[in-house]
Amino acid sequence: MKKRKFSKDFRDSCLIVAEQVYGRKGTWAYEAFTFINDAYFAGRIPWPHILWGLTAHGGCVAWASTARDKSRPPIITLHPSLLRGRERENPWEIPPDWLGASLAFDTLLHECIHVHIDYNLGGHDGRSSHDCKRWVRQVNRLAPLLGFKGVRFGGTKLKRVPIPGAPLTPRGKRPTKVVRINLGNVPFRVAAGFPKSLRCHLGQAHEHYGNNRLPPSLPTFSES
User: Fold this and answer.
1) Which of 99, 132, 157, 164 could form a disulfide with 124 if both were Cys (CB 3.0 to 4.6 A apart)?
2) Cis peptide before 170 (omega within 30 of 0)
3) What is the spatial distance between Cα 141 and Cα 40, in angstroms, rounded to a whole number?
């Protein structure tokens, strides 16, 4: 089915509802989305519904949903605790000092990658939405744009390897087992949680989120 074009009236309605329901954080989320879409995706991501609310069972910080036939706009749900909310005590074991606009920005960027893959690239093409070639290509493309150098993400593959310390078989060979190995120069979990997980892996997260780093042209979040 041909992708549906969503009108300016729809975008305006989203902004009105966001401001009325969520206040400043509602409009800030759309400011952040517009920056992300223009800077990293050449404006190709369709205008989404951005909701601030509890994800299913409070199990994740955000969630993106895209209709398979693209007949409706994507829906991105952001957990209110990302902006230092009090909906959950010690949410996801994230240090309280990290909660704020910078973490919300990276979380929204992560969900926008999912929307871009689902909406523009045909969906994930691997074992999962993260362990797939399209996800790997996107995070490798985005990493240098976010200032990360020398990072190469890869997917995973199965490989038969010797079992360390196991006695030789009667035929004099080392027993083997099948394991899943990482193909990049960082652990696979870092690719799956990009970009927050990469900041953590490189030891940059405390400085980045603790100081609420944002692109200079993007206004920070303030309730006032």
Assistant:
1) 132
2) no
3) 9
- Residue 38: inside a domain: yes
Task: Compute and round to an integer the Cα radius of gyration of the chain.
Answer: 20
Largest CA distance in the chain: 75
Distances (CA, A) of 34 to 41, 45, 50, 109, 142: 10, 9, 12, 11, 16
Q: Is residue 142 in some structural domain?
A: yes
Taking only the tens place, the pLDDT of each residue in 6-21 is 688 999 999 999 999 9
Instruction: Kindly state the percentage of the chain with pLDDT values over 90.
Output: 54
**Residue partners of 17: CB distance under 8 A and separation at least 6:** 26
Q: With the CA atoms of 38, 42, 46 and 49 taken in that order, what torsion angle do they form, in degrees rounded to the nearest 10?
A: -20
